[in-house]
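Submission sheet (multi-component)
Chains listed below:
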Amino acid sequence: MLHVESLHAGYDNLRVLHGIDLDVPAGDLLAVIGANGAGKTTVLRAVSGLIRPSSGRVTVDGRAVTGLRAEKVAAAGLAHVPENRLVFPSLTVADNLALGGWTRRSSRLTDDRDRVLDLFPRLRSRLAQPAGTLSGGEQQMVVIGRGLMAGPKVLVLDEPSVGLAPRLVAEIFAALARLRDEAGLAILLVEQNARAAFRVADRVAVMDRGRIATKGTPAELAGDDRVQRAYLGGG
Ligand code: ATP
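Outcome: structure written.
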């Protein structure tokens, strides 16, 4: 569903990605972990059209989207949930969600919103509340919900767990697992919280200085001493 081949990208004169290959089929969740500055966020930006790759190939649902602007990549079926959890603070939760569905036919919007509220039930009683007054975890749910309102096939998320209490991390990751299992979304997740990522992911890719250093199932990688020491806090 999401296919990334030999992706090179960076900023001005800084080369960050040196040939990234990733595949995320429908109904699959791939987590990308790695040290600070390894280039995880840059992978998501290059995939979703926020920066232009210098070379390589990205396809979404079989359509080549390499080098297209973010709106076009979104129209091909990819929703990007960025790191900074930006809601429109003075707009209500309902309006924040509706903004994510602006490209959809109005007949779809109610169904789409019902699905988001089914996934994140705590948003239901807060629909009329300004989104800026929600807790961090609830704001994260709004931002993910807003992405889902466009009816994507591929969901990419940048560190959705940052700064959240363990219970909320578990709620959000349970929602991602449902989107994968019930809606068949292809999910690409960048995470600092390797333990949480290992619990939900089907496969994990470890990034190091702009390359994929190793990948495998969580069970395979948990058996790797270096991964265990560097990311899982094991000895
Ligand atoms: P973290 O876990 O700290 O978020 P990351 O693995 O997501 O790190 P990136 O944010 O992709 O890493 O950053 C990779 C490199 O690109 C870093 O050296 C960073 O300083 C640089 N970089 C990131 N964003 C920009 C930018 N907008 N302009 C210039 N350099 C940038």
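Remark: The chain has nine helices and ten strands.
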